Amino acid sequence: MDDDRHVASLDEVPSDGTLLFTVRDGDGLAEVILVRFDDGVSAYKNYCQHWTDVRLDKGSGALVRNDEIVCQKHAATFECDSGYCNFGPCEGSYLDTVEITVRDGEVFLTDDEYTFERLGPSGETAQSSGSRIDFTGT
Ligand code: FES
Asked: What is 3-119's CATH number?
């Protein structure tokens, strides 16, 4: 598999959070999160399905609890293995999946829609054109 599709080692994906990376598609840069589940790792676009300009991982890992990714805006929870929202204002929706594969303990991007850009955030604070003020603060 191409080295330029290599994202990270599986060991770099935390068991209690997410690993953020940036991809490029036809529209520019986009953020993706890697998250562990029982016997694997999944990749999702880094935004909530309730408000798509709210990032799940703001750069230091999303909140992961009981095998669920928690949106810290209004507490929607998404199952790590499927991306299914089982609670919250967007209940019944799914996070947008990005195709990856794991080979010999290394994670590779296999989704033809994207090219791997870098580990870490995109440098853009909003995922959509309609910016929204984030009241959660830190
Ligand atoms: S923005 Fe995520 S639950 Fe509302």
From this structure: 2.102.10.10
Cα separation, 123 vs 71, whole angstroms: 20
Q: What is the pLDDT of residues 89-123, one digit of tens each?
A: 999 999 999 999 999 999 999 999 999 999 999 99
Checking if the pLDDT of 125 tops 70, the result is no
> Which atom, in ligand 1's list, is nearest to the CA of 49?
2
Which residue owns the Cα nearest ligand 1 atom 3?
Answer: 74
pLDDT of residue 136: 46
- Answer yes or no: are the C-beta atoms of 44 and 97 closer than 8 Å: yes
Cα of 111 vs centre of ligand 1, distance in Å, is: 26
Q: How far is CA 109 from CA 26, 36, 58, 65, 67, in A?
A: 16, 15, 21, 25, 22
Query: For residue 88, which atom of ligand 1 is closest to its CA?
Result: 3
Which residues on neighbouring strands pair with residue 32, listed in sequence order? 21, 45
Which residues' Cβ are closer than 6 Å to ligand 1? 48, 50-51, 54, 71, 73-74, 76, 88-89
